[in-house]
């Protein structure tokens, strides 16, 4: 009897769960191929329909909304917005499949939970909206924005007695991000159509508060101008000068904020930097090394004499000046001593006869017979700019750094140079005569050559009483000639011209090294290219003018041997010269 009483509840429980399971299976069978109840796509109820029906219904409603122009209102004005122009797209097939997959992941517990949640509180799937031609939507929004009376007005500060402040006014503009979000919600069936133009407040860049702070600063500077001094020189920031430095659009300019007890105002950093730069131009000067002349004629008593005095340089520390100036404006301090750095020369007058310049180390020679007047002038000018230069031990001599800019603005005249594959008239023709000559001097002195480039083709000037391969071209600032002073003492460079020959002498202290050069060998030659004739409409008809001259191409090699402390180092120098053609211009005018 007791067993029967215990068995009966178990039978009821089994019957209940069996019925529940059968019912759940029937539920699943009924919704096979259809969305479960409570599935929403946007605001569209997709319960109990197949994915294809979801997609079809979604596309139909999307097209209807897409094709219906929106009407946005602002201050009783209506602004149409044509959505179809921007070609919106909806991922209907993807979202339909996503809706169908809710409760069908294959994970029994997860699926059951999703099915129950959808049944009780609904589950929403949101379609994604994109625009194939979003720029056309942007254009329409920008057009509406331009027609709205929502202009922002910056405050103004007008100098006078008294100074007048015109207040600022905040503006408004379309909140483009919000409007696009509303449009996407509408097209994805999330909400109804937007009706009002969504706006956001645009604060002025230069507010009334900042303008009043600026006014106070201008009034104070009028009473106590800021004076900047260096030695006997002075510069003043008065009311007019400060006004010129103030930024009246601090949101859109690079500014420095001046924080005072009476509020903050801003300085335009670009104009302030230029103001300080102008002061620096009046203060700054480079340090000048002393230049010396060696007088070998005195024999054992040979000495160097100075022919250019050394000079200390000075330079305004512009960053420190900016910092100090802003602090003075913040603290209302009227006087500022400018921070100027003193630059010491590398070589001073006191170094005369203490530099180890005792003997001629080597001499370079080149000839320039047949050069035009401007070429002779240019090589003399370049030679004068390396004359007297002292090279400290361990330093590199750079031709470009020493001679500087080679152009008409630095004193050079037009003469023939190799440029862009042509021999043309250009400022500085002839300067390579000087770089070639100091190359020869440094070769003979046994100094390490750091950088050397041969000319593109063989130049006749450099083969007057010299074999090919002993030239060095320069082209400021990219192609340089450099050598290193590794002698342990200073080297003095002296240049001079005798007749049609240029000499470069290197003086210093011999360290026992000896140098020998082999005679250059021409390994192979290439004949010049056929001459080229080109029509030139700037020359009279029939006139012929030669602008390039033929030259044989060649591969040239020589060796240099340097012996020091019983050890010999051998170097091989190679130069590859291209064949060159004669070029004639034929007048057609």
Describe the structure.
The strands form 14 sheets. This protein has a four-stranded antiparallel beta sheet. α2 packs antiparallel against α3 and α7 (208-223) runs antiparallel to α8. By secondary structure, it is an alpha+beta fold. The chain has 13 helices and 36 strands.
How many H/I helical runs?
13
Number of E-type strands: 36
Mean pLDDT score: 88
What class do helices, strands and sheet pairing give?
A: alpha+beta
Structurally, how many domains make up the residues?
4
Strand content: 25-35%
From the N-terminal CA to the C-terminal CA, the straight-line distance is 135 Å
Task: Sketch the major β-sheet.
Answer: 4 strands, antiparallel
Shape: elongated
Helix content: 25-40%
Strand line-up across the major sheet: 21-29-28-22
Runs in which pLDDT lies below 50 for 5 or more consecutive residues are none
Radius of gyration: 44 Å
